Amino acid sequence: MRLEAKDIRFRYGGGSGARGGDGRSGWVLDGVSLSVEAGERVGLVGPSGCGKTTLAKILAGYLAPTSGSVLLDGAPLPARGYCPVQMIFQHPELSVNPRWTMRRILTENWTPDAALADALGLEDAWMNRWPAELSGGELQRFCIARVLGPRTRFLLCDEISTMLDAITQAQVWRLLLDVAEQNRLGLLVVTHNPALAARVCTRVVEMG
Amino acid sequence: MPDAMQGLLPDPLRSLPSRPRLRAPNTRRWLLAAVTACLVYLLVVFVWGRVMSPDLYAVHYADKFLPPDAAHPFGTDFMGRDMFHRAIKGLSNSLVIGVVASAVSSVIGLAFGILSAVIGKAFDKAVLWCVDLCMGLPHLVLLILISFMLGKGAYGITVGIALTHWPELTRIIRAEVLQLRAAPYVLAAYKMGQSRLRVALFHIVPHVVPVYLVGVVLLFPHAIMHEASITFLGFGLPAETPAIGVILSEAMKHIATGNWWLALFPGLLLLVTVILFDLIGDGVKKLLNPHSGNL
User: Do A130 and B290 count as a contact with CB atoms less than 8 A apart?
Assistant: First the structure.
């Protein structure tokens, strides 16, 4: 399987380009192409504001590009039903419904087995709590677990481990790499941290 | 072991069985008790007023202007009517009007709010224009206009209140739905293959319902106050109906001659009712909010 971005151009608001006064007339992405194969782990690094998150959102189908196309095995992403391309966001506290218990959040899409929950350090005692009662790092582990289901083919990780301490960060990445290996997932790792990209990824793409 | 220390102790110690002890009621239970007490009071006033025999506030010219005593806790007025029973009956009438008017108003607000956020720009603009129109006019003037047009009385006043209290709720619900539709967890739910219906039922409704409920409860005091004010001004309920507005406007004629009890007690009763509704609204808001609901 292959996830492909072809000649993506994107600007926010679709307007005349009042933003970005650096001569690019407001284009956040101007002719970006990128492809991720199944089983490949691509790092996406670059300075703040260069459009890493925007590109990830376009690849996951959260944003529609102004021009260009996103193809999954040569076909556009499915508009309804489960999307094989899933994205994990930088802000877990916004990515979970504050009125749902953690158990419901975790099982919205599939039911992770005990081994996975254990590997991510999801404690049973957390399951009946509200998101407001957990920390960002704890929430992020739930957000990771809920998209590791068998139907996911590509995983876009947008700065997912910045809120974790070094040890948890290492554990989470170890597990993610294991699952990616097992399910032959394609990974796109958006990060500021070149060391992390070098350690985790098979290939690094620089933006900006 | 004091509560403050429990969090500091390492896990193995905390999981030791502790002696059973009587737990102090927590915030949630206090709130529940307070909300229930307010509801019971309001229900009692409502039912009492409904089933009360009119003889209890009938005219007795022999007992004119009696100050408060054991037989007449709120005193009597210029026709010798017992003010306590008249005030309860009046408040009960006000509650009926308040309930009907805020029920209608809140449904209008809910429908407009949701449709405005969902249907599209043109409809949204039209609704917002109506909201601005209603909020731009002084509320009392609009109420008087509608009530007067419909021939005053209970009908005119109820319709008037029902038709003028929806704009605030519409705005709040519209903003809530708009925000929810763009929330990352809602977008993520679509990507995880959830249908529009499931997202609406399980992600959006649970956020809108508490906002709506609190909105309805907080509408009551507005509705009751407005009913009392326009009745006081003479555009509402007729003079023979026991109503707080009627009682207060009659009392104005006699207060200068020293009959202070005619205005004081019914006024206090109205104030207490309004404050209780406010307390219920705040209590329900806290109980339904996950940030404070588990305290």
Answer: yes
